TrEMBL record:
Listed name of the protein: L-cystine uptake protein TcyP
Keyword Membrane among UniProt keywords: yes
Record lineage: Bacteria, Bacillati, Bacillota, Bacilli, Bacillales
Transmembrane segments: 6-22, 34-52, 72-93, 105-131, 185-204, 225-245, 265-287, 337-359, 371-389, 395-415
Family statement drawn from the similarity comment of this UniProt entry: Belongs to the dicarboxylate/amino acid:cation symporter (DAACS) (TC 2.A.23) family.
Membrane as UniProt keyword: yes
Gene3D superfamilies per the UniProt record, alphabetical: Sodium:dicarboxylate symporter
Keywords: Amino-acid transport, Membrane, Transmembrane, Transmembrane helix, Transport
Amino acid sequence: MNTLLLILNIAGLLLLVGILYSMHRKKISFSKRVFTGLGLGIAYGLILHFAYGTDSTVLQESMPWFNLIGTGYVKLLQMIVMPLVFISILGAFTKITIGKNFGKMAGLILGLLIGTTAIAAVIGISVTLLFGLDAKEIVQGEAELARGVSIEERSEGVADRPLPDQLIDLLPANPFLDFTGARPTSTIGVVIFAAFLGFAYLTLTRRDEKNAATVKKGIDAIYSLIMGVVKIVLRLTPYGILAIIATTVATSDFAAIYSLGKFVLASYVAILIMFGIHLIIITLSGLNPITYVKKAGEVLIFAFSSRSSAGALPLNIDTQTNRLGVPDGIANFAGSFGLSIGQNGCAGIYPAMLAVMIAPSVGQNPLEPTFLVTLIAIVAISSFGVAGVGGGATFAAILVLSALDLPIVLAGLLISVEPLIDMGRTALNVSGSMTAGVTTARVTGELDKDMYNAPLDKQTAEV
């Protein structure tokens, strides 16, 4: 009987995949296919959840088959992330317009990423205090205790080290090791290595124009090749979102979500407020925020469903350059740096909320000005190196809690609702990097306003 139900579950998923493929054959726009995939995934996930329950053997046996599409798609995206980050940063240095405004461009992007993270910390603190959240209110079950032990083990060698030493670890002693993603800070390691090569290229252009031209040609060729792979993978987005969101909804513990509803609500209130800050920044730069929301929608939906900022990078860069009018160089810098610096959700809101919740458990008054200023500063500094993959928020929490001498084991308190909250955090991370790219392009006068303001239905996606 279980085998028959398993086959039916898989057949149902394949039927929905067939619907999306049919839409592709009929030349229906990429945006509509993405949102259709999301809707079908939610509906099918709810059907499976209420038909079987999260503890059902049939459901547990079905999910690995769903992951062939969902997790398989994310793996393909992760496959191209490190090469894309590297060549995107290096390629940005070869753009002549970037060469003229490099200092201003880089300063604006980094300033926006770090500045918005500090603002996100303030919002996280404010919402936590407003809702009266306290770690003592959360009942620690087996899952929370196990997660706490896991976090303590993971933090060995990190929690007991001073912050300067942790920052030194960001530097890529072996960049080829970082290309494998072996360290939690591998992404920023690759970014730093690419930036050094980029500065070397700028020096070469002043001393040896002939060789510099050869280097530029080679970099541009590799960039075109990598982007070709990116476009192939991005065509699978509607199917990936369908499988990922169906799996997430089907396996979500609704009882835990209900019991921790106050914490989930507070988290999303903070996330939505910070997203509103992004729109205010867009507005202050003289652009229509509604246009931004419409054109960034696909990327944010994918980030929300996949919970991977790194996985969303190709779609992030593609949307900035082909729909929002951001030059290649700026889009590449903002998207790539946004993976490892200034993630508003995972490195800003989450660690700040957690610190304020945990502080009373060790006798620390979370309203003390010194504590609040220190917390905001540490959140901003420790946002360097947060990986844009699953678990980045936990790594950020470890750094912040250890710097404040708060118990790291309590970082596992929200394990039951972690996936649900992480979806919103990831979307906010990606929005932060896109906001930095659009705003920087606008301030430096390099934004293509005609492309930004062009109707979405007249902008044919290259996927």
